[in-house]
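Teaching note: in complex prediction, the entire set of molecules is handled at once rather than each chain in isolation. The prompt given to students was simply: 'Predict the structure of this complex.' The entities are:
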Amino acid sequence: MKRVERKNLFISWIIVILTMIVVIFPIYWLILTAFKQEWAIFHDPPIFFPLANTLENIKNTLFGTNNILPAYKFILNSFIIAFTNTLLVVIVSFFAAYSIARFKTGGNNFATWILSNRYLPPIVFVLPLFIIFRFLKLTDTYIGLILVYCLFNIPFAVWFLISFIRDAPVELEEAAQVDGCSRTGAMFRILVPIILPGLAVTTLFTFIFAWNEYLFALQLAGNKVVTLPVYLPRLRGAHDVLYGQMSSAALIAIIPAIILAFLLQRYLVRGLTLGALKQ
Amino acid sequence: MNKNRYRWLLVMPSVIIIIFVIIGPLLYAFYISFHEWRMVIPGSKPTFKFLINYIKLIRDPRFLNSLKVTVKLLVMTLPFELIFGIIVAVALSNIKKARGIIISIILIPTMIAPIAVGVVWLMLFSTSFGPINYFLKLMGQQAITWTASAEWSLTAIAIAEIWQWTPLVIALFFAGIVIQPLELFEAATIDGATGWQTFRYILLPLLKPVILVATIFRTVDILKIFEVPWVLTQGGPGNATEVVSLFIYRQGFEFWNMTYASATSFILLVVTIILVTLYFRIITITEV
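The expected output is the structure of the full assembly:
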């Protein structure tokens, strides 16, 4: 028995470690390339270890050179849009989630309908929004993208927050109301402190979804307001790919997501599957 | 305040935004899909053509090709994702140490921007400087022009997709396994069942709903896929990797045939809605 178990554990570790290697290698390669000197990037055979390091690529990407635009502006754009969108989404979604969780507003179908919007292909919305945005003069504006990102983030945040609010005991809010607190007062003073972790997790997920978005940013903005994801593939020049700059920019683009993957640990599966399975 | 008014007031801000960014655009797309509108001609107005776009569409070889490519991509990725997903999830469930960190590491690909995934794989697939071709050469194989060959470009996209999304499938199965009562497996082992028998006759049937959920999840996602083919191949060479989303994008923003593109996007929308409805049916059944 014991020996069989030990054998199983051994095989399991091998499978898991191999999986982690396959997962990490592309990211390792990206980091490696971002810090490689030019000659090392184009060396044949490829160099697999950090031998010829430089900060040149990162510096050129951030602050620009004669041929390439400084990326810090695009990073800033991405941040402003993702941050403001997150703020807006978490606030309006919290109220909606509270209403649905506590008063069953609109019944089960309403909640399901809100979430189901999250699954629709973005390309379906890009076409009409492109025309609507031109008409409303929202093309190439911060506010335009901030609003559009609500289309995938509100469904997510409402649904996610509902699950956290349902887990919080309603009795505490009722007790506060008996003691003379208003319904809204109980919501802020009693419920919010209880579900603070849930709010934080929702905020982080919402931020990363907005930070990662490409298609809307490309088509509804992309001239005056350029986000980091839109900038990335533009480094694939007409003649050759600017590997050094491209990998540096991509590295900067994925760092927040990697940090969050570790921060969110316990909630990762729940967030990424939008509560497909109970945990 | 009246309770009924209060609860609706709370959902109002979300609903108003949803009307503006979701319902409005969808209705508008539906409306123009019955029209013809040459947007490249200044001042041109949409003219009502009823089903013309839809009729043209079902006879358009390029559209049919994009459907074929999308289905091909699904067939190339889904079996891998499910098989690896189950294997790694079972392995992970045997391990008690450092689970949280392992899950975080494994899930990194699903958290990062799809456009960055495209960029990473563009570098890995580079014909002369990429590590993948280097490994192929080490094994005595010919170098492959991954992103530019009609034969391999879809495979390249499939590999990047498998890399990005298998972790999510692993996580789904893992979540499905850890909620199962442990006694079940212990009882089976005491009764003399081998590891394979426990897996095949006890665990696998229990995971059926998870397999369904994962399948629908991935199908819905493949219908959305845009960034990775956009960066790796731009749908090429020719139309070899032009998935549905890319087809719609091209019709809309390269040929400026918005009404035709809208008609296509509506077909895509209907398929997605059917799948999503099915999905919600399944999760409500399994949760009872």
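Point out the following to students. Chain A touches chain B through 97 residues (CB under 8 Å). The mean pLDDT of chain A is 88.
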